[in-house]
Amino acid sequence: MRLTKNTSWGLKSLVLLLLVMLFAGAGVSSAQDKAGGSDVPPGTKVTMQNWQQFKQYMSEGMIALFDGGHFFQLPPDVEIDIGKTIPIGVPKAYRDATEKYGPQVQLKEVSAGVYKPDPYVAGQPFPDPFSGSKDPLIIGQKIYWNTYYRAQPVIDYAPNCTDVVDHFGNMTRTADTDIVFTVMQHLANTGYPEALPNNGGYYRAFYGEQIAPEQGKYTTSMSITPQDPLATEELYAYVPSLRRSLRLTTAARCAPLFGSDFTFDDEFPPTMPQLFDIKYAKTMKLLFLLHQDIHAYDTCGSATQVSTEWNYPAGLHRINFPKPKAGDWELRDAYVLDFKRKPQFQKGYCYGDRLMYVDRETYFPLAFDIWDTAGKLYKTIQIFNVPLPVPASKGDNILTLGIAYGFAANFLDEHGSIFTGRTPLCLDHECDSRGFSDISRYAQPDGLMKIGQ
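-> structure tokens emitted (453 positions)
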């Protein structure tokens, strides 16, 4: 058949269309590294009347709070004010370590479906998680390890208040705690070596000691992560009535902390990744409160209600939620990871699917949406924050877990928990004079036996 000019152009168009369709369906492409959707102009107000226009920018848990179909709902007069997206960046020492060590890191499969960065020293292990593979599993692993080894303070302390809301809408302060996070190895922090002396072979530790009410004073929870990220994380509890510490089994990962809806396995990010299939789901623009007013952390409120100056009050079907005064929300480019317990480790585990929303700029985990093993939305965890200046690095800021405000809305059990990491806090060497830099006390198992001394 002889091709006319029009027929030739028609075939070229058809070939071009087929190529576009082919590349569009060829797994995860580099284009997916860019958050989709149009920006929302600063000054926009999200309300109960118009929220569906913005649901593409919300996590599944936030949509559930807005749509009213679950136990917890947002108040009818809720308002979210959208401001400019404000860059945060990461500290210079961390950037330098990434440039120095990043090119040598490979994602190594140490056993079937289990990966870790190797060799890893410091900084961000995978500056471009989309390079080298389009497999969602490989991309998910790289994003996970960037989150695991994100820029963090060496010492991060803040006094913390935990409040719970029961099925009838009653709020009660359950615990005031001293919270200390310590990172001991793979450091890229000005004024510190790459590893703290006498670290005991541990990478990171969480320490939470109850200081009120009096009947629970000194009750302490501790998790310590070994330097080998695939080793079993150690969980401990100090029981003041016994005057001794107990090492807990891995089943305790689902046990509530201080009577709240938070568990050991709600760590940011979850540890022991060898137990999970971790896959990249998508990149999105996430509407989030990440530059909260620092004064919102000045008080925990009363024994029966958090500060209503900064938050909508809790009540029947209501979880505390930040008011517009607490700060403008912004659109953050975020990666979404899907965690699913491997089948051989699923029996007796508390969760089914879990989505983690990770800030693309800082790799700080912002939120979790969690389903039970039957596929019902179990709870959503939202962690609002404010960047803090790095003490030894002028002009640099960092996100922390110590001073933060967040909640766990437990849809299935019909109660919720709120935590407030309040001022006065300290970071890094600011904590030296207050004793929180003593890793033998706050980041080693033996430190539990020093409680009350």
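The mean pLDDT is 90.
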